[in-house]
């Protein structure tokens, strides 16, 4: 699959109402999921098979996210972060092409790491650690990379204009695809 041509004028629209609602519902569901699992395990019993089945979705989601970033690094594909940057700004200069490819690698490996930690803390003896990790810890890691990268990028590339946080999130939400 070859990269799509850059738009002549990048879209500068903000998030539409359905996009905001979708993002808000997804975040709420992901945050309350560990609490729901704790309650469901209490009703179903704390059998290891039940606990493992309830704890699989965060591992699967993180693994799928890892795949969705890393798969875009294959020959003939546009790296995910490069795609978002191109949609936001049009043609990318060579320094941003290299940087966005490296950033795609970083996001992919972050999600591999998150999936591995989720798998480890899903052991029955680590239920509290699993609840903490899936409701706070993994989100904190994503937030640190996201916000840390924004700060780094502004210092590393002061000669380029940078999208606002709202614009950046809008591009990702509107144009996310595998």
Short description:
With 178 residues, the chain is mainly alpha-helical.
Describe the structure.
The chain is an all-alpha fold and 178 residues long. The chain has one domain. The chain is 73% helix and 0% strand. The chain has helices spanning 17-44, 48-70, 80-89, 94-121, 127-156, 165-175. Helix 1 (17-44) packs antiparallel against helix 5 and helix 4 (94-121) runs antiparallel to helix 5. The relative contact order is 0.15. Mean pLDDT is 81; it is low at 1-13.
List the helices and strands and how they pair.
Elements: H1 17-44, H2 48-70, H3 80-89, H4 94-121, H5 127-156, H6 165-175
Descriptive key words:
178 residues; mainly alpha; 73% helix; elongated
| Secondary structural class | mainly alpha
Instruction: Please give the share of residues in helix.
Output: over 70%
Number of helices: 6
What's the average pLDDT? 81
Whole-number radius of gyration?
A: 18 Å
Regions with little confidence, pLDDT below 50 for 5+ residues = 1-13
Question: What kind of sheet is the major sheet?
Answer: none
* Topology pattern, helix = H, strand = E: HHHHHH
Termini separation comes to 12 Å
Assign an overall shape. Answer: elongated
* Number of beta strands: 0
**Count of domains:** 1
Strand content: under 5%
């Amino acid at each position: 699959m070859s990269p799509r041509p850059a738009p002549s004028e990048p879209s500068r629209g903000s998030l539409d109402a359905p996009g905001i609602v979708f993002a808000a519902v997804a975040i709420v569901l992901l945050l309350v999921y560990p609490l729901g699992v704790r309650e469901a395990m209490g009703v179903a019993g704390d059998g290891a098979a039940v606990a493992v089945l309830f704890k699989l979705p965060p591992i699967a989601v993180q693994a799928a996210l890892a795949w969705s970033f890393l798969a875009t690094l294959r020959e003939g594909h546009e790296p995910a972060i490069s795609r978002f940057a191109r949609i936001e700004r049009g043609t990318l200069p060579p320094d941003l092409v290299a940087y966005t490819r490296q950033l795609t690698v970083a996001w992919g490996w972050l999600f591999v790491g998150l999936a591995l930690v989720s798998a480890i803390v899903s052991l029955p003896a680590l239920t509290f650690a699993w609840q903490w990790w899936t409701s706070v810890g993994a989100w904190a890691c994503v937030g640190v990379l996201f916000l840390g990268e924004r700060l780094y990028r502004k210092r590393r590339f002061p000669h380029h204009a940078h999208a606002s946080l709202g614009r950046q999130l809008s591009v990702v939400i509107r144009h996310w695809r595998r």
